[in-house]
């Protein structure tokens, strides 16, 4: 089994709630169960999809909760987003049973309908689990030459992504079937269950437009025109797609508004297998015309996972001027700016940043990320 980088033990505290969030099918339940099986403490576990569990926790009563929890050291609730008023119940447990630590897994429904935000202010820690990271995959290989191993794996990673069901199955047809099923049945489940959305087809059409322009700046008006919906609705749908861990955005960076673009955003996919399933393109890299976009998305998504798991706190942006000079990723941390350009073909990579960048931010670090040095960017950096 591939070992995850997220260590739950360091976040679980008595009198507090640990919320484990992330996309569906990334292994949240597996990770929680693996941790609980190794713990010597007294543990109570509940399945949030069970009607009995929902009845127990949906009507908060302190006396009832004391009877349920008893002397347990850890209360674990899987799929807790299915339980009405779960935030209020967890608040009562945290406040009145200070010796009990709570861990609850949940899908994006927690984020969408705000079940745990206000009730657990100051009482919770939120951790995020994503599809496997490159570092997790390479660690499982126990390879003496991780650079060479990654180079061998890249074609499949850029086409099929890193969901556990994909990585644990080498058959291409099985991988395609899983990703198609994920997109068709599960990807939008939380949005459609908790939000008023015109139709699932509009959301899929929006995702398809975003998939075809990965790495490009997005115009809400243009997207709305293509979809037959207004700009405000497009913005709401994009927000929902971010909260369901399907896409994430980069905003433009600027210190000089006359020269630099700062109001637009670029959208990327958390997983490239999902992106390719949306446009139904699982062709090998040597037959594709979007390898550059795939590479940029891959680097940004993997860097996001690394920042999350290693607690690297940084603001991230893209940079572009009205004259068309651009840099793919800026990280602003500890008062410094680090600039990164993603290039699949190292022979076409430039060694210096754009001239306008040099004139404005000359002392900033600039690195070109290619398949040859990406491991330093994702693992060692």
UniProtKB/TrEMBL annotation:
<feature type="domain" description="AAA+ ATPase">
    <location>
        <begin position="14"/>
        <end position="136"/>
    </location>
</feature>
<dbReference type="Pfam" id="PF13173">
    <property type="entry name" value="AAA_14"/>
</dbReference>
<dbReference type="Pfam" id="PF13635">
    <property type="entry name" value="DUF4143"/>
</dbReference>
<dbReference type="InterPro" id="IPR025420">
    <property type="entry name" value="DUF4143"/>
</dbReference>
<dbReference type="InterPro" id="IPR003593">
    <property type="entry name" value="AAA+_ATPase"/>
</dbReference>
<dbReference type="InterPro" id="IPR041682">
    <property type="entry name" value="AAA_14"/>
</dbReference>
<dbReference type="InterPro" id="IPR027417">
    <property type="entry name" value="P-loop_NTPase"/>
</dbReference>
<protein>
    <submittedName>
        <fullName>AAA family ATPase</fullName>
    </submittedName>
</protein>
